Each structure stands twice: as C-alpha cells, then as structure tokens.
DNA sequence: CTCATTTGACCGGT
DNA sequence: ACCGGTCAAATGAG
C-alpha cells in the first residue's frame, strides 16, 4: 500500500462513489419503509437491501485491493483467518510468509451463515475468544451446552469486517443432543405494548424457559448483539448483549414500521446486518435454524448460508 | 454455592 | 515459527 498514489486516489474516488450509492439506496429504503407495503410490495425493499449490500461489497473490495495483499473481502467475509487488513490498518507486526496462512480444516459438517443476528435457536456455551490476525473483531468460540451429554456441535462467531453489524457464524458438527430435536423456536413479533417491536422466540414444545442469566452478563461482549427489544423466551445462551442500550435490529430497521410496529427513536438508520458464522450441524437441529431464517428473511433480513465441503474456505 | 464467562497459556495444524 | 482452537483457572453474577 502507498506504492502507487495514483491508484490510491482512483480507489478513493471509487470508494466515495460506492458509499454515496449505498447511502442513496439506504435513503430510498428508509423512505420506502414509511409507506405501506401494499404500495410497493416486498420485493422493492429487498432489492434496495441487496443494492446496499452490493455497495458494501464493492467498497470492501476496493479497500481490500488497497492493501495490495492477497486479502479477499466479500460481503460475507468476516475477516477471518484469510481476511485482509484495511488500508489504514497497516500492521505493526512484522509480516512473514506464514502469517495469515493458517486455515482450519473444513469438513462437510461445516457451514457458514451470515446474519444480522447470531440467534439460531440453540443453547451454546462460550469457551473461548481470540483476536484474529488482520481482523478487527475477535472470534468467539461456542460449544453446545449439552457437550457433557456428548453433543459435539460447536460454532464460531465473529463480526464481519467492514460490516460489524453482521455476524458470521461458522458451525461445526451436528448436534447429537436431544434437546434440540424438540427445540423448535418460533419467531413471534409482538406489536403490542408494553414492549414495542418485541420479538421473541418460542419453541413449539413449551420450553418456556427464563432468559438466561447470561443476558445481562454478556453486555460486556463485543461480538454478539441482539437488540434489547428482541426477547428470548427460550434457553438460548447465545442471546447476548440484551442489555446493550444501543441495539441493532437489522430486519427491524429494514422492514420498517408497517411490518413490526415502529422504528424506535434510538434505532440507528443504517443497513444493518450482523455476521454470524456457525460451524457444524446440530444433530439435534431440526428446524429451528431454518425456520428462523425463513422468518427473518420474510422480514427483509438477508442471511447468507454457506455450506462448506472439504475444498471450500 | 453454582455455573457461565473471561482470558492467558498451551497444543497442534499449516 | 506462526496462528487458530481449546483448555482451564480466575472471576463474576445470580
């Protein structure tokens, strides 16, 4: 980087163009959200959201090329082991050939999900967190709370580089615990007071569990954010940052008042997606993940679910 | 007291 | 040698 000023200038211009475009799309989307869905239909909003994402992707791509490295940033690249560094983020560490080359082996039981929420209807226990080279955000490691029972499902969650509102979650291994078999969270949007925009997840099996005590404990966590207006009524341990006073509820912002009530004053107006990378199948997983995705997508959220085979990643 | 999270240390893959 | 993943003691909340 810095080796060719002309290119940098051109790229800066391109960045500006992309960002302006993204802002325009976001503005259009915002305006759209103040109109009844019947007027424009759901597809237009989705198209705008896609344009915004595209703008982000392009911006990240330009930023990536600024480094002059092999960094590859995409809309779903959370800056994991292969992530690149930002233009301004010239690493102070001496860079050797092996740096950033490490890649965890992937199997067919590994898949990745990019989401505005790390919610997946499972109960997880955090067992580690690491700062990842060239990544702005730490990677958090979770295992199924039923590991003592033999469940080998794990997941990694990391905020996406350049788009920290998105979570990338990588899942590893299937759930073998039985709790998840019966676990079928159902996304419910509460439009009634006292908690406007309240969204809760309830399973179909009367798992009417109290919110985990992690809920407020996790307010320290940087990586996992669920809006406080999202209420979890299951024993989902990865509902975190519920106490965070500055929530992000992407689908909420995207779908606007017509769908779920109203956008709170404090809700930041931005194209917000969170990255969730999940690894491995819960063998106990039945429908919760996909069911949730479906619900969220219906609300305008954009999830990217990537399955890995041995060669991907 | 119990249990989840944090975080530095260690291990093993690349 | 480096880096990511996991372990486990320390810490803290309920």
Automatic annotation (TrEMBL):
Signal peptide: none annotated. Residues 113-175 form the WRKY domain. Pfam families: WRKY (PF03106). GO terms for molecular function: DNA-binding transcription factor activity; sequence-specific DNA binding. Keywords: DNA-binding, Nucleus, Transcription, Transcription regulation. GO terms for cellular component: nucleus. It is found in: Nucleus. Residues 195-221 are annotated as: Disordered. PANTHER family: WRKY TRANSCRIPTION FACTOR 21-RELATED. This is WRKY domain-containing protein.
């Amino acid at each position: 980087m810095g080796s060719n000023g002309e290119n940098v200038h051109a790229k800066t211009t391109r960045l500006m163009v992309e960002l302006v475009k993204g802002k325009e799309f976001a503005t259009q989307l915002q305006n759209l959200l103040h109109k009844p869905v019947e007027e424009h239909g759901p597809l237009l909003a989705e198209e705008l959201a896609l344009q915004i994402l595209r703008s982000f992707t392009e911006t990240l791509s330009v930023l990536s090329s600024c480094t002059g490295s092999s960094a590859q940033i995409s809309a779903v690249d959370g800056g994991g082991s292969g992530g690149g560094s930002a233009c301004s983020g010239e690493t102070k560490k001496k860079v050797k050939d092996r740096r950033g080359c490490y890649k965890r082996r992937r199997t067919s039981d590994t898949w990745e999900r990019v989401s505005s929420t790390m919610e997946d209807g499972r109960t997880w226990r955090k067992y580690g967190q690491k700062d990842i080279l060239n990544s702005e955000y730490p990677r958090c490691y979770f295992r199924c709370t039923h590991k003592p029972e033999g469940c080998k499902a794990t997941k990694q969650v990391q905020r996406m580089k350049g788009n920290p509102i998105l979570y990338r979650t990588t899942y590893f291994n299937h759930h073998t615990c039985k709790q998840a078999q019966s676990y079928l969270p159902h996304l419910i949007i509460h439009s009634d007071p006292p908690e406007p925009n309240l969204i809760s997840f309830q399973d179909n099996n009367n798992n009417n569990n109290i919110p985990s005590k992690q809920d407020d404990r996790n307010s320290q966590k940087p990586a996992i954010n669920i809006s406080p207006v999202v209420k979890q009524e299951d024993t989902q341990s990865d509902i975190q940052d519920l106490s965070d006073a500055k929530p992000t509820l992407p689908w909420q912002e995207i779908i606007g008042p017509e769908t779920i009530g109203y956008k709170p004053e404090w809700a930041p107006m931005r194209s917000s997606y969170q990255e969730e990378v999940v690894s491995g199948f819960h063998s106990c997983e039945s429908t919760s993940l996909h069911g949730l995705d479906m619900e969220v997508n219906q609300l305008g959220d954009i999830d990217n679910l990537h399955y890995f085979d041995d060669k991907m990643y």
